[in-house]
Design a protein that fits this description.
5-stranded antiparallel beta sheet, disordered N terminus, Double Stranded RNA Binding Domain
């Protein structure tokens, strides 16, 4: 039973495009370029002299409407501000609900 479960788990993960680390960079950039994230980043830097952190959670893929997404967390000083879902190809970005 344990072997069946272990063999089935990779099927639930998103396909990782064969492009080196580019899919990860693209996911972060797509979130960084959202108007609300950009405004928050500028405000964060001006008021707190802090830098945002972007975490791509490959270990927690989300399936919506038969499509796989990577959660991308936007953080500052270790605290979560917002989360977004980005498709591995970078063509779809949506707020995580």
């Amino acid at each position: 039973m344990g072997c069946l479960l272990a063999a089935a788990l990779p099927g639930f993960a998103c396909e990782f495009p064969d492009e080196g680390n580019m899919p990860l960079r693209r996911a972060v950039t797509r979130v960084e370029m959202l108007p609300e994230v950009h405004a928050w980043t500028v405000d964060l830097h001006e008021k707190l002299s802090a830098r945002p952190q972007f975490v791509v959670r490959l270990d927690q893929p989300v399936w919506k409407e038969r499509r796989c997404y990577w959660p991308v967390e936007v953080r500052a000083r270790g605290e979560l501000w917002r989360s977004y879902l980005v498709s591995p190809d970078g063509k779809s970005v949506r707020p995580k609900e």
